[in-house]
Specification:
With about 325 residues, the protein is an alpha/beta fold. About 35% of the residues lie in helices and about 25% in strands. It contains 10 helices and 16 strands. The chain has helices spanning about 15-20, 40-50, 55-60, 75-85, 100-115, 125, 130-140, 175-190, 285-295, 305-325; strands spanning about 5-10, 30-35, 50-55, 65-70, 90-95, 120, 145-155, 195-200, 205-215, 220-225, 235-240, 245, 255-260, 260, 265, 270. The protein has an 8-stranded mixed beta sheet, with helices on one face. A 6-stranded parallel beta sheet has the order 3-2-1-4-5-6, sandwiched between helices. The structure holds NADP nicotinamide-adenine-dinucleotide phosphate. NADP nicotinamide-adenine-dinucleotide phosphate (NAP) binds near residues 35 and 36. NADP nicotinamide-adenine-dinucleotide phosphate binds near residues 10 and 95.
């Protein structure tokens, strides 16, 4: 099999971790990196391989690049995804795909019109442990899911220009971290019927956010994200027969526990192994899913489908409106 050539756009924090997993996927080839600075691209390429370009335009023009991994701040994803699509490249775009649902839909339309692949890099959804848990739930042997609790947070101590806290770059806990708890609830319970959000908004961005959700059949979710707390970063999915527990960090699990009442007591914890191994820290499985789609000639992924990505953007829009965060 010919390797699939990857180009990295925006060699920041996550691009480094992603590229390390890329090197673990046998038919993936890190062809090139594009940065606004040739020096930064060269440092990245020196560490991880490939050609260094001092502009994104040169990166997407490289004929050896089949798929571009967009790893710039959220507010630039739309511009950079379009740049790659217009150059005829497939795209894996970091989460959240854009700042609001309409633009996300436009990107999927643009990819479809060009016959190119586009997927949001929602690596939690391609994680084998999450997929195994969802498969078990869908099979019905673990009861009906009734309640999701999920949290993601860490203490952010950074300068005001950091994309995490800069409103111009889409800063805030909801879009950076809250998207994971919301996505977990969506994967397990489907589209919400209603979401209610509250937040601690400082300097135009949400540092802390809590969302309560109601889903079909009266299932509910309690979802939190924080930039001011060393929060538990765990999740539980409770059904009418027991409870899946995803330990810290729930969005990148290597195992999941199943705990269920056994008569008057609780059964010993059962650790459930995933159907497939986690590759690297999990970005490897996301890369494998992109490869599977490209080799099958598919322009969207059934594991991270456009409908899900657009729905999640709508959910984020809804909560942002309620908490008064406007970009
Ligand atoms: N999947 C995950 O697990 C995960 C984890 C963390 C973040 N993310 C997502 O990945 C994206 C990047 O996050 P990150 O933490 O890697 O950010 P980061 O460290 O700030 O890196 C972003 C990169 O984008 C480029 N960039 C282009 N225009 C920029 C601008 N105006 N300001 C700042 N940087 C600019 C920069 O590279 P050059 O200037 O060198 O081109 C920068 O290094 C975000 O959308 C985030 O939500 C995903």
């Amino acid at each position: 099999m010919d390797p699939i050539g990857w180009g990295v756009l925006g060699p920041g924090r996550i691009a480094r971790v992603f590229a390390r997993d890329l090197l673990l996927v046998p038919d993936a080839h890190l062809v090139a990196t594009g940065s606004r600075s040739h020096e930064r691209a060269a440092a990245f390429a020196g560490e991880l391989g490939g050609t260094a370009y001092g502009s994104y335009e040169e990166l997407v023009a490289d004929p050896a690049v089949d798929v571009v991994y967009v790893a710039s701040p959220h507010s630039l994803h739309a511009e950079h995804t379009m740049l790659a699509l217009e150059a005829g490249k497939h795209v894996l775009c970091e989460k959240p795909m854009t700042l609001e649902a309409g633009t996300t839909q436009e990107l999927f339309d643009a990819a479809r019109e060009r016959g190119l692949f586009l997927m949001e890099a929602m690596w939690m959804a391609t994680n084998p442990v999450i997929r195994t848990m969802c498969r078990l739930l869908a099979a019905g042997g673990h009861g009906t899911p009734r309640q999701v609790h999920a949290d993601l947070g860490f203490l952010v101590q950074t300068d005001p220009t950091d994309r995490l806290v800069d409103p111009a770059l889409g800063g805030g806990a909801l879009l950076d971290m809250g998207i994971y708890p919301l996505t977990l609830a969506h994967l397990v319970l489907g589209e919400p019927e209603s979401l209610v959000g509250v937040a601690n908004v400082v300097g135009g961005i949400d540092l802390d956010v809590s969302v309560a959700g109601r889903y079909a059949g009266g299932a509910t979710a309690a979802l939190t994200a924080s930039m001011t707390a060393q929060s538990p970063r765990t999740a539980t999915v409770a059904t009418d027969t027991g409870c899946f527990h995803l330990p810290r960090d729930f969005h990148a699990p290597t195992q999941v526990q199943w705990v269920a009442p056994d008569g008057t007591d609780w059964a010993p914890v059962e650790w459930i192994e995933p159907d497939e191994p986690v590759i690297g820290v999990g970005y490897g499985n996301e890369i494998v899913e992109v490869h599977r789609c490209l080799r099958a000639g598919e322009t969207t992924s059934s594991v991270v489908p456009p409908e899900q990505t657009v729905s999640l953007m709508r959910q984020l829009d809804d909560v942002r409106e309620q908490i008064g965060v406007h970009y």
